[in-house]
């Protein structure tokens, strides 16, 4: 089996993916807009997120996102978000962290080693769909090394200027392929799904 690595991110129109879900989620670097997604409700976001998680059988998370998830999802396995809560609680959680002392108390949680490429290769042999949710710093490492198969973005019509971006200067130059037509809801939130390819950007000159 060769599993897939899927990155799922909420992003502003200018590419900021930092701290979308709550005011205390990620104010690092003096970021003043943590909670920007929660402040702009989308009429279809919940439905499209649930649909996109149907094949998930493992999570790969950065430390900050893991801490947020571990504090929230085990206690939200009922109600409107119960389906996702039960899924996240059940599947293996792989945590990319350099802190060997990090407590991984959430059931079925494991630490990822320092060799990210080797760890990704191992995850592909054990899981069909490994989803990377949030975890912007980890995403930067995956994008820099081309260690992903799909990138799904929920793009909100918001401009923030400052903040951690989806793509930093270390992203591997590459051409992505749009997997399906973009979908926009009545609030202007657009769902974009891209697949990784081995193509690199070409350059040229427009002739008269």
UniProtKB/TrEMBL annotation:
Organism: Microbacterium foliorum
GO biological process: riboflavin biosynthetic process
Gene Ontology MF terms in the entry: 5-amino-6-(5-phosphoribosylamino)uracil reductase activity
Record-annotated Bacterial bifunctional deaminase-reductase C-terminal domain positions: 5-174
InterPro entries given in the database record: DHFR-like_dom_sf (IPR024072), RibDG_C (IPR002734)
Coiled-coil intervals: none
Protein name listed in UniProt: Bacterial bifunctional deaminase-reductase C-terminal domain-containing protein
């Amino acid at each position: 089996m060769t599993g897939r690595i899927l990155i799922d991110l909420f992003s502003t129109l200018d590419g900021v993916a930092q701290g979308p879900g709550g005011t205390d989620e990620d104010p690092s670097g003096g970021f003043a807009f943590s909670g920007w997604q929660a402040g702009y409700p989308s009429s279809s976001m919940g439905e499209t997120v649930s649909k996109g998680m149907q094949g998930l059988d493992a999570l790969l998370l950065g430390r900050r996102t893991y801490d947020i998830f571990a504090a929230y999802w085990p206690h939200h396995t009922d109600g409107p978000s119960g389906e996702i809560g039960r899924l996240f609680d059940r599947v293996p959680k792989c945590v990319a962290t350099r802190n060997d002392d990090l407590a991984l108390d959430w059931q079925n949680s494991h630490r990822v080693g320092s060799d990210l490429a080797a760890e990704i290769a191992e995850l592909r042999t054990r899981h069909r769909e490994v989803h990377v949710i949030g975890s912007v710093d980890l995403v930067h490492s995956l994008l820099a090394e081309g260690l992903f198969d799909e990138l799904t973005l929920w793009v909100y019509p918001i401009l923030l200027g400052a903040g951690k971006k989806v793509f930093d200067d270390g992203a591997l130059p590459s051409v992505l392929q749009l997997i399906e037509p973009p979908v926009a809801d009545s609030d202007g939130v657009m769902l974009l799904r891209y697949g990784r390819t081995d193509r690199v950007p070409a350059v040229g000159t427009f002739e008269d």
